[in-house]
Amino acid sequence: MTTEASSLPLNAPVQGMSSGVTLPRLIRSEWTKLWSLRSTRWTLFFACLSMAGLGPLIAVITMARWNHMPAIQRLTLDPIERSLGGYHLAQLAIGVLGVLVISGEYSTGMIRSSLMAAPKRLPVLWAKILVFASVAFVLMVITALIGYLASQAIFTQHHVNVPLSQTPAFRVLIGTVLFMTVTGVLCVALGTIVRSTAGGISAYVGIMFVLPGLADILPTSLSNAINPYLPSNAGGSVTSVFQQAHTFSAWGGFALFCGYTVVAVGLAAYLLRTRDA
């Protein structure tokens, strides 16, 4: 039976293997695969620790230095962004794990088994995206709330705290969580396109961290024209309290970032259907 199955084309369904394959069952399968890996637990632990712990740590250091800070620093202190300061490290961890969600299967060859069980292929990608995005969103919401509320409690020492109900605190918090979640989806798409862990992570780092640095060394007029359209700047606009010059509005930039992600997912879906595993 093994010989017969291996001789079939990769796109050909195997009798009895595709029966009963539904999206809910694929989601359960992807959930099991996601949590069966130690890399998942450790990477998510690092992301949660960064999101929940770094903000309060920054708040403690800021309050300890308060009496030694120049007046201009006290006046311009942004307790909202400092409370969510851990999102940069959390974003990196979520992005790396997003690539690993699918590139790990390519490196071990397990992707062949997954696609043989679900020969239509695309439901496998949708299940991976749904599971990973849901896990990332829920964990980041919880840890962002913990980090924010703990930080604001510390900022009360010098009465610079900002309640979550005050504008724009809630928008920045939920925007930060959404930005990280969509970043994870983008990285799942990059892992599908590149089919390599090292290549996918390199693409992620290049797009989100290297491109802004390269744009900054361009002449000012050209840099100002390019910067708003870079994925990291467009998506990151929703994580900022104040909008900088030469940037889109908070939700306008995030919408553009979501557009980039949709294009990447579309390309990943096309390549998954047309390439051999």
Could you explain the architecture of this structure?
The chain is mainly α. The protein contains 13 helices and no strands. The longest helix is centred in the middle third of the chain and has 34 residues, at 122-155. The radius of gyration is 22 Å and the shape is globular. Residues 1-18 have low confidence and may be disordered.
Helix-strand blueprint:
Blueprint: H1 2-6, H2 23-35, H3 38-64, H4 71-75, H5 79-83, H6 87-108, H7 110-117, H8 122-155, H9 169-194, H10 197-216, H11 220-226, H12 231-236, H13 250-274
Offer a few descriptive terms:
13 helices; 277 residues; mainly alpha
Largest sheet: none
Domains counted in the coordinates: how many? 1
Catalogue the unreliable spans.
Answer: 1-18
Instruction: Indicate the mean pLDDT.
Output: 89
Beta-strand residue fraction: under 5%
Overview in brief:
This protein has 13 helices and no strands.
